[in-house]
Design goal:
alpha/beta, Rossmann fold, 2 domains, 15 helices
Length: 385
């Protein structure tokens, strides 16, 4: 069976983190005997055609070379909102991407086109014949776009109506999508995580929490700092990531009197991140309405328990009292109490971490995820026959 992936995020070279979860799915499907070809936008200093560990990728040009900056970095929405040049480039991406899909279908004759993110991926997939089965996967940022913008909501319903099958990476996202398209029948199918990289081992600190993510308002790091200040444990906190709120968070830590207990690491490569997961007593995720909560999955694979708000896709990943603790969204006192409760356990959460790894392997291993998507492909092809 031949599958065409259409996406705006995919590794630009071996080891690149952009769209790495999509690459892991493509690689696992290839190992299972399917032929997967990827169509993605061009970018500066990236080969127009490449093969990465057996997965072929073709990148289409959509604007003058210096304008092709929309994909791979997660800044498409910001660029389009701030620049007319980016808006023109986006128009080119939609038009030329649809043409590229049409050409690829004509030359490769895939059995299924699988679009990642309804915007722009499934928009590009509209270039395929309506008779070709189309699977659309919702990843999070695309659902937020449809919820925020009236024009996007209408467009979302059009794309969904064209899709033969729709998947969402969490129950939360599936519910959000159904709120906009009540007749939608979306199944929950997460993307795979690197089980080879994120593994347990090493010495775990006794009272050291870890945050991983963007330092911005959406991630709720200010609430985490307040929770740490309210704790009597004296625990330390490592913060991995960067963002526009770093200076404000450093100032807040000083006002709260906890600056000496914090370490700001900035961005770190995946290999170093795995070591930090293994060393932490627990990972704390103070954000709300996360599409999935990939950090929680990575932590669990390292046998690290998770403390988080009971919100968004995190409820699919963390089982309260079994793999970590979930607290009411936005409740600083409850978050602080959960962090303290973990530290007072005799095992410092070791049993929670072990249970978390077992659960993560059962849901997020590449071969497990690939088997579920292969079943979806086979179903939509048989229905189209």
């Amino acid at each position: 069976m031949r599958i065409l992936f259409v996406t705006h995020a995919f590794p630009r070279w071996s080891g690149d983190v952009a769209g790495a979860f999509i690459f892991r799915l493509a690689r696992a499907l290839t190992r299972s005997g399917l032929q997967v070809h990827v169509l993605a936008p061009a970018a500066k200093d990236v080969a127009p055609r490449d093969t990465i560990e057996g997965v072929t990728v073709q990148r289409f040009s959509y604007a003058p070379a210096e304008w092709q900056t929309l994909a791979y970095t997660g800044t498409m929405a910001e660029q389009v909102g701030q620049s007319w040049r980016a808006r023109i480039a986006l128009s080119g991406m939609l038009a030329r991407g649809a043409m590229a899909v049409r050409r690829d279908v004509a030359t490769r004759s895939p059995h299924v086109v699988h679009a990642h993110w309804w915007f722009p991926g499934a928009m590009l997939a509209l270039g395929a014949p309506s008779t070709l089965p189309a699977v659309t996967t919702l990843h999070g940022s695309d659902v937020r776009l449809a919820r925020r913008k009236g024009w996007a909501s209408a467009l979302f319903r059009r794309v969904i109506a064209r899709s033969t099958a729709v998947t969402a990476v969490s129950s939360f996202l599936a519910d959000e999508a159904r709120a906009m398209a009540p007749n939608l029948r979306a199944t929950v199918e997460p993307m795979p995580v690197s089980v080879e990289l994120f593994t347990p081992g090493g010495e775990r600190q006794r009272a050291r929490f870890l945050f991983v993510g963007r330092l911005n308002a959406q991630k709720g790091v200010d609430l985490l700092l307040e929770a740490l200040a309210a704790s009597a444990s004296g625990a330390r906190l490592d913060l991995v990531g960067d963002g526009p709120d770093r200076a404000a968070l450093e100032a807040l830590a000083t006002r709260l009197g906890i600056a000496s207990r914090l370490t700001f690491h900035g961005e770190r490569p995946q290999e170093q991140l795995a070591s930090l997961y293994r060393a932490a007593t627990a990972v704390v995720i103070p954000s709300e309405r996360e599409g999935l909560g990939l950090v929680a999955v990575e932590a669990h694979l390292c046998e690290t328990p998770v403390v988080a708000f009971r919100s968004g896709g995190l409820t699919d990943v963390v089982t309260d009292g079994q793999t970590g603790y979930l607290t009411p969204p936005g409740d600083v006192r409850a978050l602080s109490a959960a962090m303290d409760a973990l530290l007072t356990r005799a095992d410092r959460g070791a049993a929670l971490g072990r249970a978390g790894r077992i659960a993560a392997l059962g849901h997020f291993s590449p071969d497990v995820v690939a088997a579920r998507y292969r079943a979806i492909y086979e179903r939509v092809v048989s229905h189209a026959a």
